[in-house]
């Protein structure tokens, strides 16, 4: 049975490393976009600069502008 009462903010808080791993390492652009959307929407404002730095690092590793 599925729990339809999952709080996305709590999910991201508890699973941040796994969500970031999808952004960093998935070959599926849709999966990366979904993971990034979760991080973007549910990261506290005081952590957005860190999140921006993470995206820059991912782009740099992938060699894309």
UniProtKB/TrEMBL annotation:
This is HEAT repeat domain-containing protein. It comes from the Archaea. It comes from Halomarina ordinaria.
